Amino acid sequence: MSRILITSAIPYINGIKHLGNLVGSQLPADLFARYNRARGHEVMFICATDEHGTPAELAAAKAGKPVAEFCAEMHAVQAQIADGFRLSFDHFGRSSSPQNHKLTQHFAGRLKAAGLIEEVSEKQVYSNADGRFLPDRYIEGICPNCGYDKARGDQCENCTKQLDPTDLIEPRSAISGSTDLEVRETKHLYLRQSALKDELDKWIDTKTDWPVLTTSIAKKWLHDGDGLQDRGITRDLDWGVPVKDGENDWPGMEGKVFYVWFDAPIEYIAATKEWADKTGGDWERWWRTDKGADDVRYIQFMGKDNVPFHTLSFPATIKGSGEPWKLVDYIKSFNYLNYDGGQFSTSQGRGIFQDQALEILPADYWRWWLLSHAPESNDSEFTWENFQAGVNKDLADVLGNFVSRITKFCRSKFGEAVPEAGDYGSAELALIAELETRIQAYVAQMEAMEVRKAATELRAIWVAGNEYLQSAAPWSTFKEDEAKAAAQVRLGLNLVRLYAVLSAPFIPDASAKMLSAMNTLDTDWPDDVSAALSALSGGHEFAVPDVLFAKISDEDRESWQDRFAGTRD
RNA sequence: GGGCCUGUAGCUCAAUUGGUUAGAGCAGAGCGCUCAUAACGCUUUGGUUGCGGGUUCAAGUCCUGCCGGGCCUACCA
């Protein structure tokens, strides 16, 4: 048994996330957490909401609520949705927690003491009407290059030219439209990532087993142009972690907060402390290598947009602190899931949102399809036809129907108890041998976090049950040799339990239903397949379950296609 | 503009990292079965691996040039 720390990239608080967010981090992380628990490892699975920053303030203002209240409500909504998808976090924290405030300030203090913080005076655009400094992309105006009138302060979307806000003609606030803007001097803290460049570079070089997607993004940032740049870690906002030097005030930084990308990853640690404060557990044995975390394996899951922060900024924070914090061992990153030929988009309301998905179908349908199509090597594509076909075939026909046919056949010939006559013969031994090979392959893919390949192996394991039933044909055997048919059915019923155990990381609800129907609490991993297929012995009572997976009809598919064709609201 | 990823059967994806005749699932066709959610099983039709050059005994894989798709580009998070 080993200890495994798993974190999923923390979703931003601003609104309900779409399915792309789910498949890019939380869902595969949950798959891996459930798998490792099933293998008997001690797992700490952490996620949280990322609550600070300008968009949260604006969304709260739009909703007419104080930002703290807005975030608390949205956190509850996201927690409920996560629960709906059966995400098995040990703790779902909040980056606005007091624990994170304290820890973020602590790290800042350590980095300052190590000489890794620089104070920089810079000029930024201030909007008098909005009463705030504006991030570059919240300033709009006419592009000096192409004349497009909705160019943003960081880039013109029309001609893709990189811009400075001061380049814009007739600049205005994207928030209020006000043109009452001025350039003000303001002081900010920069994390001197450049001073840690060589150390980070060497560290990344040792990670030869990481996905190319992860290391190539890190390398790009390390080597592009002048190399890794220092990064501003503070903002002129009200909502966030107040800038402090550990416990002490930071002269000259009054009224400023840390930038979300400084405090958000620290929340992984703080959320574990939130968990500890709630449960009385020990968080330091997961995070402090001087307090037991040296034998922890730490794995992060995230979409590709988050890679620079996790490969560079956060490690810079950890390393720069000079304290023995646990560093990530493996970063599993994902590409994007597209929706019918374009991107899912939270801001544009395009695609299927998590709450809507749960309204129309149970979690397992989404979990199975999304995981078996996880965008690992490339961006992948959601289409309703694909979704319908995949779910109907894999879940309803292959797995669901298998459970249905064996339990119903047994009920009609032997009643609702495992028949005890007969012994397993050569056909059964052959199946056991095949399953041993396939389960080994499944385990190998799960250990390697090859999500799609693991799904393929699992499906092949389900198919093996149908193949066996077809060739054993207990409905024929029964007419000549009742004892032989009994043994065949007994094996089939044991397969249901085996499938429940193996499939639980992907489809936990169906797995629970299968176990419940088989009237067993035995969820031991089938290290010994032969023994596992004798777990339910003669006389053990069971119940024929309801249909595990109803099929998606063409009418359903078409109506959902229509409903989700446009944008939300 | 720069960097990275990518293009394989109608669709979604593989291919042990340069090694026999490029494989699966779905969809299509045929046969079988009747326990089952008209479900299952078996067989089978589909590919000049985007296009052109090159290296090599050997290229889907490496190099190069085109063409297409995607992401990132540091103040969205």
What's the short story on this structure?
The protein has 569 residues and is α/β, with parallel strands linked by helices. Helix content is 47%, strand content 15%.
What does this protein look like?
With 569 residues, this protein is an alpha/beta fold. The chain is 47% helix and 15% strand. It is built from 19 helices and 19 strands. It has a 5-stranded parallel sheet, sandwiched between helices. Strands 5-4-9-10 form a 4-stranded antiparallel sheet. A hairpin with a 4-residue loop joins β4 and β5. The longest helix is centred in the last third of the chain and has 31 residues. The radius of gyration is 27 Å and the shape is elongated. The two termini are 49 Å apart. The structure holds one RNA strand of 77 nucleotides.
SSE layout and pairing:
Layout: E1 3-8, H1 19-38, E2 42-49, H2 54-63, H3 67-84, E3 91-94, H4 98-113, E4 117-127, E5 132-133, E6 139-142, E7 151-152, E8 169-173, E9 181-191, H5 197-205, H6 212-223, E10 231-232, E11 234-235, E12 244-245, E13 248-249, E14 257-258, H7 260-279, H8 284-287, E15 296-303, H9 307-320, E16 330-334, E17 337-339, E18 342-343, H10 354-360, H11 363-372, E19 380-382, H12 384-414, H13 426-447, H14 451-472, H15 474-480, H16 482-503, H17 508-517, H18 529-532, H19 554-563
Parallel strand pairs: 1-2, 1-15, 2-3, 15-16, 17-19
Antiparallel strand pairs: 4-5, 4-9, 6-7, 6-8, 9-10, 11-14, 12-13, 17-18
Helix pairs in contact: 2-3, 4-7, 5-6, 6-9, 7-9, 12-14, 12-16, 13-14, 14-16, 15-16, 16-17
The structure holds one RNA strand of 77 nucleotides.
